[in-house]
What we know:
- This protein has one helix at residues 56-66, and strands at 2-3, 9-10, 13-14, 31-32, 40-46, 68-76, 79-82, 84-86, 101-105, 113-116, 126-129, 132-137, 140-142, 150-156, 161-166, 169-171, 182-187, 197-202.
- It is mostly beta strands.
Amino acid sequence: NCVEAWIITRNGAVDDRHANDTLRDPALDGYCGYACDSIMGGIYTLGRSYADFPTLADLKDKLYYCGIDGPITINIYPGTYGNFNFTQTDIFEGQSEINTVTFQSLTGNPADVILVDSNSTATGAITLNNTAFYNFNNLTIQGKTGSTYSRGVYFSNIGSKNITISNCIINIEPTTANTHNFSGICRSAAPSTRSDSTINIIN
């Protein structure tokens, strides 16, 4: 959404010379920003050009600018997706224990939606860093292959809470190494005065 403004009257007279009093960004079609038609809540789709949100980044943008006033379910179209990373900045206005954000397979079949670790650093297919109020349901969570680590769900640092992982298939690369680098679900930091809480794993 873009805005362009100019003067139409000056001292009671018509001003038709807009070239010298128009407020706009010359690189754009005016001053552009994000406008919301409503606060978010309900069921949406993700993963196609014609979906409510073609990408996860598009979804996060609207959550950031528009906020949440009810539980949200994101039905993901069949396919393979990367960069499902959530940090403290991904707890959006209105998000809570009641107003959660749920990601799930559109078809209900976990095999149809595969989340992969596409990060360049040692993280996971789903990485959660001091975030909250997310649910992941009926998904395949695939750790990295051919690497020095393979993790499905990775709790980076501490402080995440109210996270539910249900009816998911979690795959990691087989190893004989006794290390959290190869884990279906793991946390990188030991508990301290602040730790992860209310983490639900349901199958």
